[in-house]
Amino acid sequence: NLASEDDNITATDEMYAALEFTVQNSKGEYLVLTQKDATTGAYAYSSVTANKEDGTKIKLGTTSHKAFIADLPIDTYTITELIDTSIYTIDSATKTVTTYQKETAKVNFINTELAGELNLYKSALGNNVAGIKFYITGKSATGRDIYMEGVTDDNGEIVLDNIPIGTYTLYEEGSTVPAGFLTCDPQDVTIKFNEETLVDVVNEPMKGHVTVKKTTTDGNVIKISGIEFTLTGTPKVGGDVITLKATTDENGECFFKDLPIGTYTLLESGNIPVGYITADNQEVNIEYDKTITV
Q1: C-alpha–C-alpha distance, residues 77 and 289, integer Å
Q2: 3-class SS at 9?
Q3: How many Å apart are CA 52 and CA 69, to the nearest integer?
Q4: What is the DSSP string of 109-151?
């Protein structure tokens, strides 16, 4: 008769057999067994029970790589892996093995982390989207440290596949961002089994501001409100020509805010007071996070 699960299992020489099994790429609730992950080289864990055909449990010990039972009565056993199927796929949860006299029967379980895909789409002014590095980092649902990276193609796209499910942080590598653009803030991304996670990333250009103060050479401040100014130019980072208009207030001021850095031309374009000559055009160099007063 088989010993109880709390007893040591022994047998006579005539009944001698052994059972050896491994669990690959797996982490279970009880951490009974360990096995080196063939893909990553990391160690992972699983919980496994061995049962005689009549359902009697055999208590297993813990080893570094494999489970091994010596002096096991010759019989037919089922080996059942207790695993969280919300984070793993398994080749077979239960396997049957028959032991023979003075032989070692072997059983191998292979488990694979559930995985998904990340599709990143980058956009930026002037189509500055190629050659920019992004990476994700964090722990998978199984508790494994994950780091994966990619570089945008000419269309600003990156596809990272076979990412273990879990929630990660996505970073943009600032050293690869073109001059004149701000690095995107980190953001969390969640990878789900057999799904594509879509992420749209927009690099905003660096911006500055312009304040126009209208005066007259004779010091007369009458009718300096309502005068139209036009600011036009092409951002340093490229893109279409920007043309903006603004009208002076009662203090003779007007404002152009959040302009991509670059060199622009300011001209007095309308409603000039009678008796005054239109002011000369001025070149305005807009710098990041600064307000230029003209």
Answers
A1: 73
A2: coil
A3: 13
A4: EEEEE-EEEEEEEEEEGGG--TT-EEEEEEE-TTS-EEEEEEE
Residue 59: DSSP 8-state: -
Residue 5 has pLDDT above 80, yes or no: no
CA angle 123, 126, 130 (to 5 degrees): 55
Highest-pLDDT range among 50-64, 146-160, 268-282: 146-160
Distance of CA 154 to the CA centre of its chain: 20
Tokens linked to 259:
């302009």
164: nearest Cα among 131, 121, 194, 204: 194
Q: Phi first, then psi: what are they for 282, rounded to 5°?
A: -125, 145
User: What is the number of residues in the chain?
Assistant: 294
Q: Is 242 helix (H, G, I), strand (E, B) or coil?
A: strand
State the DSSP string of 143-161.
S-EEEEEEE--TTSEEEEE
pLDDT over 70 percentage in the chain: 71
User: What order of strands is seen across the sheet that includes strand 196-203?
Assistant: 157-164, 115-124, 196-203
Burial of 175 (0-12, 13-18, 19+ CB in 10 A): exposed
Lowest-confidence region among 8-17, 115-124, 169-178, 269-278:
8-17
3-state secondary structure of 126: helix
Residue with tokens 């599709």: 119
CA distances from 78 to 58, 98, 99, 105, 272 (A): 11, 9, 11, 12, 95
Bridge partners, 255 (sequence order): 211
The amino acid at residue 59 is K
Mean pLDDT computed over 88-99? 76
Average pLDDT estimate for 175-193: 95
* Integer Cα distance of 88 and 110 in angstroms: 10
CA-based Rg of the chain, rounded to a whole angstrom? 35
Paired tokens of 101: 């006299």
* Best CA proximity match to 284, nearest among 240, 249, 254: 254
How far apart, in whole angstroms, are the C-alpha atoms of residue 271 and residue 197?
54
3-state DSSP assignment of residue 288: coil
